[in-house]
Amino acid sequence: MSSGAAKVVLEVLRGPMDGARQTIGSSHISVGTAEDDDLTLPGDKDLAGAKLEITVVAVGKLKVTADKPFRIDGDEVEGNGEAKTGSIIGIGATELMVVEVAKDSGTRAAKDGSDAGDADSGVKKCPKCGAANDPNAPWCGNCGRDL
Ligand SMILES: [Zn+2]
Asked: pTM higher than 0.70, yes or no?
């Protein structure tokens, strides 16, 4: 089990994927036109193969890098920049809003012995992808689904 899993929620405000909302259960996210990107923007021709790499730095804080100029809150950025919850990241014809940046602090010392009757083996299985998660995990560390 990887400790320090993160969850990022991005919403497409403008562009061919207008209205799409993506929850990514990872601390490293790629946004681009390739199918294996965490957030794929297939219709955005202005992207022209450009890729946006987003890394969770802390709760509410992201590092964003791209191989072509992009925008954070309307400011032109080259190379890399910082975004936070509520920031709008623009690349190509697409604008993404950072809806949520959460970080699972791992196994917290909050186990006070009064387990709420969870007789299971101590792992919570994700109903979506089947990954084993910490019983206290609020979401799946693999796919980001709320548990
Ligand atoms: Zn899952």
From this structure: no
